[in-house]
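Example complex used in Figure S2.
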Amino acid sequence: METLLLNGTDVRENASMTDLVPAVEDAFAAFERGDAQMPPKSYIDLPEYNGDFRSMPAYLDAGTWDAAGVKWVNVHPDNPEKFGFPTVLGTMIYSDPETAVPLSIMDGRELTMLRTGAAAAVATDHLAVPDATSLGIVGAGAQSYTQLRAIAEVRDIETVVISDLDEERVAKFVAEFEGEYDVRAGSISEVASCDVLSTVTPVESPIVARDDVGAHTHVNAMGADATGKHELADQILLDSKLVIDDYEQTTHSGEINVPWSEGVLDDDDIYGSVGQIVTGSKDGRTDADGISVFDSTGLAIQDVAAAHVVYEHATEKGNGYAFDLLGLA
Amino acid sequence: METLLLNGTDVRENASMTDLVPAVEDAFAAFERGDAQMPPKSYIDLPEYNGDFRSMPAYLDAGTWDAAGVKWVNVHPDNPEKFGFPTVLGTMIYSDPETAVPLSIMDGRELTMLRTGAAAAVATDHLAVPDATSLGIVGAGAQSYTQLRAIAEVRDIETVVISDLDEERVAKFVAEFEGEYDVRAGSISEVASCDVLSTVTPVESPIVARDDVGAHTHVNAMGADATGKHELADQILLDSKLVIDDYEQTTHSGEINVPWSEGVLDDDDIYGSVGQIVTGSKDGRTDADGISVFDSTGLAIQDVAAAHVVYEHATEKGNGYAFDLLGLA
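Predicted assembly (658 residues):
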């Protein structure tokens, strides 16, 4: 019994967004139906290294497939400058739920970016205007690429506007996509008036103002992942159809955590969860809706669903390196 | 930056008990001093497969070294009969705390057996009579081997008596060790009257009676790892110097969990933790002591400490297979 090792390139090459987006939608649905298990993330804080580790175990039963695993991920902001490593790394163990055999061990960093893009696409599919053609992105880091790749699966995106203080990052993003889209740099207000907006920054003071946002824009608020972080002005949240991925995680560390803890926003301001929408127990966008916001913190079930897709593809194509980790022969 | 893959054989060959026992002692001490982080184990129960997964993340700072990681482990009792796999498998991700780079991924099954043996040895070192020469073991499964290997590091064991209903297992154990020790099969009372007794069975009704145990025997109760399991008669616990590894874990799923939940045993019956003993804040065995018992449930810090030893040895010897999991080159 061998374990398939998949590095970042293998993960990227085997994570077709065409399969990944529905798999993540299946995961949200399974979670909503109660067919998933996702213990709270466990944190290990290492102030001496200005970093932390998080373990994210999950199981989900999507009906035609099920999957289990754990992602071990971290945030080490000093990594780029001190060591030349990314701030966020990650390792995913993907296991057979029936036998617990570790079917695959894969790069969790690439997986995180891909499943985060896929989550935005699921929300966009249900919450953006049906004829959306423009996508704005605030933040031109690693996450911006998978936002575009994924959202283009669910809407016919023609125009992409990107905003980032770092001009080099913007140029790199534009160069990557200029053959496929009408892509250009723009101000926050140009970006935020697109049909779909994704924010993927780690800021602690909102950078998108209420007036920036288009009347019917759907916003994927992807950046906030810790207490104190938020990207959108409170009034955007208060005026929107506000959808979350998970109540505990979003009130603790999602886009809504700051106004929530300040009492600016409460339960009544939350329309529902993405799981309720994908299972049909609550409506997605209706003609009456203006702005919609998806507050995404990232769920362990997304990782497990994405790992499932990657493993199935890689096995089929014969990618990766098979290693006898258990020695059970 | 490559990740060192170590299979079961690699783990075994690089886990010298001479280094492992003090490393696990260091881990208990770090935990007691507050220099370790160990969030509660997260469980995923899969009744449809009669199994479960547990994630066990930890960090510890032993002073001269520190270590972080997560073990992903399971209990699938149908594995042997249905699939020819062991009931318990496991995978360990061992990470650099400073950068979060996964330094090594190793077989967690072998690691579990080794660190469990090492924990028994640490307790035995502090709680058995100094001139102990006989070791009794109840249960001749995989854990029995590492009990003997580890305990022989801290006492001059000459005689080993083993008891198990499965004669084939007993014969295999005897064959393994007969060149090194005076080793033989024996009844429970013969086994339990040795200077040191280790119990490594998954039973739910005690199999060692009060009268079986020698007047000064030190007992390592290693088998109980879930609510409802216990191996020793309540009276043994009540009459002993009772030492635990962790209060939450032992009262929930350790040897003491059944009498605890029934109110037969309470806080006053617990002498202290192994961490208190190794740091010197409480005495180990004194001349006044009769029976002593160590209730071991197994802590994530033991895994991290053991992984540290294995990784350091394997790196030094050039063992294992280096794989570019991150692709950061």
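The longest strand of chain A covers residues 51-61. DSSP finds twelve helices and 16 strands in chain A.
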